[in-house]
Specification:
Strand content: 5-15%
Structural class: alpha/beta
Largest sheet: 5 strands, mixed
Shape: elongated
Helix content: 40-55%
Length: 354
């Protein structure tokens, strides 16, 4: 089997490769395709879909530190020239292979000073220039390794091969709408294309099909509409949060009323009065050995006839209400003491029950 995408066996050697072997001293006759090659022996692809390789500093550093995780796909130089003869003069000199998928990794490996790079030799990437172009473009598109504008340009070149957006979408296993939206970037004015990365990409795709003189206005309208919907969404969210908090607030407010603690004798023991209340209450004390109970706060409920304050019985039979009342009314230090005592009491009951 030839050295195809999965082939690892020996393959016939062309006259060109024999000449390369004679010049380099590297045997080629009956030898399986290499799995590693020196980066300088691999030519960059003249049809690389990237308009620019960009800053490769991070990628080069990663290759040095972590090594290469995925092999690049290459073709033998003679196989590439046979399929794409008009590109022979565009290939780098003194190279034996051409990269089909992995131009950035190849360039980064050179920058990193690597002596070899992992490769997968696959001469079945295409039998003509269109198939070679498609192999390079499809690999980059599926890996989402292109900028938005480079992706659109790559799709435009593939569209010329497949003839229709529907056929291209089928080839890429995407929807026709997916293809159309990305191609729309090519219809943007140069000014808006320059703002790709600054403006929302989905909105730019939406205005790409509009007449050039309308695109700025349509984009501004779409951004305003999005901002309005986002504001409404946040307002609804705040409304839901307010509604969720209201029942708890009302429950807490209900506990703010005065609970007269009814003792065994039936008398109510109100809470400790404020200093102002205490001053007034001192005047009501009798000359007997113990003072009378403090008077009810003016804010307390009264009877319909405006008589004595109506005391709320402490909710002994409603633990939740009692807890809420104590949380709001009891000083933190005293609350902690009470909580410790209650926990110990619960634990002792559990031991007794066990």
């Amino acid at each position: 089997m030839g050295a195809g995408r999965f082939g690892g066996g020996a393959r016939p050697v062309s006259a060109r490769r024999q000449a390369v072997a004679a010049a380099t001293g590297v045997p080629t006759d009956g030898v399986a395709p290499p799995t590693e090659l020196p980066p300088h022996r691999i030519s960059l692809n003249p049809d690389n879909p990237r308009s620019s390789l960009g800053d490769l500093t991070d990628l080069a550093g990663s290759l040095q530190t972590h090594g290469q995780k995925q092999a690049i796909t290459v073709m033998n130089r003679d196989a590439y020239i046979k399929a794409n003869p008009e590109r022979e003069t565009d290939l780098e000199p003194d190279t034996t292979h051409v990269v089909i998928d992995g131009s950035s990794r190849l360039a980064a490996a050179r920058d990193a000073g690597l002596t070899t790079i992992k490769v997968m030799v696959s001469d079945d990437q295409g039998g003509n220039s269109e198939e070679l172009l498609e192999s390079a473009l499809v690999a980059n598109i599926h890996r989402q390794d292109l900028s938005e504008l480079d992706e659109a340009r790559a799709l435009q070149r593939l569209l010329a091969i497949h003839g229709s957006q529907t056929a291209l979408a089928k080839r890429l296993h995407r929807s026709q709408g997916w293809v159309s939206q990305r191609l729309a970037l090519l219809g943007l004015t140069p000014e808006l294309q320059a703002r790709i990365g600054e403006e929302p990409i989905d909105l730019l795709r939406a205005v790409g099909s509009k007449p050039p003189e309308q695109q700025e206005t349509v984009l501004a309208g779409l951004k305003q509409e999005r901002a309005r919907k986002e504001a409404e969404k946040q307002e609804r969210k705040r409304g839901k949060q307010t509604q969720a908090a209201t029942p708890a607030t009302q429950e807490a407010e209900q506990t703010d009323g005065y609970y007269g603690v009814i003792d065994d004798g039936g008398s109510a023991v109100p809470p400790t009065p404020s200093p102002r209340q205490g001053a007034a209450e001192d005047q009501t004390r009798t000359g007997e050995g113990s003072p009378t109970l403090p008077v009810q706060s003016p804010a307390a409920d009264t009877t319909a006839g405006g008589g004595e304050p109506q005391l709320k019985r402490f909710p002994y039979d409603d633990g939740a209400s009692a807890a809420i009342y104590l949380i709001h009314k009891m000083p933190p230090a005293e609350f902690d003491k009470m909580l410790d005592r209650l926990i110990k009491h619960r634990d002792s009951r559990a031991v007794s029950a066990g």
